[in-house]
Amino acid sequence: MNTNTHPLVIIGGGPAGLTAAIYAARANLKPVVIEGPKPGGQLMGTTAIENWPGSLQITGPELMINMQEHIKKFNVTTLAGSVTQVNLKNRPFSIIVDGKQELLTHSIIIATGATPNRLRCPGEDEFWGKGVSTCAVCDGAFYHNQNIIVVGGGDSGMESASFLARNGNKVTIVHIGDKLTASHAMQQRVINKSGFEFIYNSTVTEIKGEQGKIVGATVTNQRTKEAQFIQADAIFLAIGLKPNTDILGNQLEKTNFGHIKVHDHVKTSIPGVFAAGDVQDPKYRQAIVSSGFGCIAALEAERYLAEHDFE
User: Fold this and answer.
1) 85-116 exposure pattern, b = at least 16 Cβ within 10 A, e = fewer
2) Which of 255, 237, 286 is nearest to 117 (CA)?
3) C-beta of residue 129 within 8 angstroms of C-beta of residue 237
4) HSE-up of 159 (CA within 13 Å, CB side)?
5) Which of 98, 121, 125, 135 is labelled catalytic?
6) Helix segments in the chain, DSSP class H
7) What is the pLDDT, as a whole number, of residue 311?
8) What is the pTM of this model?
9) Neighbours of 40 (CB within 10 A)
10) Which is nearest to 6 in space by CA: 99, 76, 56, 69?
């Protein structure tokens, strides 16, 4: 084996990538982790986590720092940079970091995650992770008998709204279209049910708060431009996520929504290339699920390398 060629390179420093690194390092694959532009991933913007097994409550940054310390125990090589180019057409595969450093590798785990679509309105950045969230399952338990705004009229929006309503919250669904786009089954969770209010042809144009807490939002009708203030204690965005796959171009098969298409959980259309976490999972989008996929990807990479004598 070419001594300049790594057995495994992991692209991404979130839960999927770091879990993959732990398993790969313990299997003596000497993985290299390219951390990406936001080491730690989406959890770095999460204030409190109560559903990570073994921790009654932990912040997102604390959890990711723990995982980063964990991989250091196994002497995992990390690169603080962003992948700017990937060549999967030739073997070994080629990865360019920050436009200059090239790594050659026999296998790759892509764990680049996904980026939630944002409103890009005043107040969103200020209250991100402090009342503005994209994950009802993650953060909904912090709100009971309060006023909640859910932005989005698709399946994710209806699922978020119905989940949030279980805690006695009043949920206002704000949708930019004149009717919901969710499937009939998902709409039935909220239509004609108490506790839900609908505002159509509108979007949140400003998020307002006092003393570090959200107090409401300005909702503007996109047709009439009429604005109204809606009192709210939290705002959940369900307007989609963009999988971080631009660096791959069209080298791998993807779904219609841009996620990497996989079979056998983590295998992509190119042998030796695996995908883990939100970059291939449009459904669950939980840190622990991403970690699970990272574990599977590392185990599959180990098998692949052994089968092809790349140890």
Assistant:
1) ebebeeebbebbbeeeeebbbbbbbbbbbbbb
2) 237
3) no
4) 14
5) 135
6) 15-26, 60-73, 136-139, 155-165, 184-187, 287-307
7) 58
8) 0.84
9) 22
10) 76
Instruction: Please identify which of the residues 138, 155, 278, 281 carries the catalytic annotation.
Output: 138
Tokens encoding 76: 């995992």
Mean pLDDT of 286-310: 95
* Inter-CA distances, 67 with 13, 25, 60, 71, 178, Å: 10, 13, 11, 6, 45
User: Would you call 135 a catalytic residue per the annotation?
Assistant: yes
Residue the block writes with tokens 């209010």: 197
* Cα separation, 234 vs 14, whole angstroms: 25
Go through 1-16 and write b for each residue having 16 or more CB atoms within 10 A of its CB, e for each that does not.
eeeeebbbbbbbbbbb
CA distance 115 to 39: 13
Give the whole-angstrom CA distance, residue 263 versus residue 255.
12
- Cβ(59)–Cβ(47) below 8 Å: yes
Residues 10-53 have pLDDT tens digits of 999 999 999 999 999 999 999 999 999 888 888 887 767 888 99
Q: Token pair of 219, please?
A: 């909702």
Backbone angles phi, psi at 156, to 5 degrees: -65, -40
Measure the CA–CA gap between 219 and 49, rounded to whole angstroms.
Answer: 29
CB atoms within 10 A of CB 167: 14
Task: State the catalytic residue, choosing from 98, 125, 139, 264.
Answer: 139
Task: Check residue 205 and give its pLDDT.
Answer: 98
Distance CA 93, CA 272 (A): 9
Residue 121 a catalytic site member = no
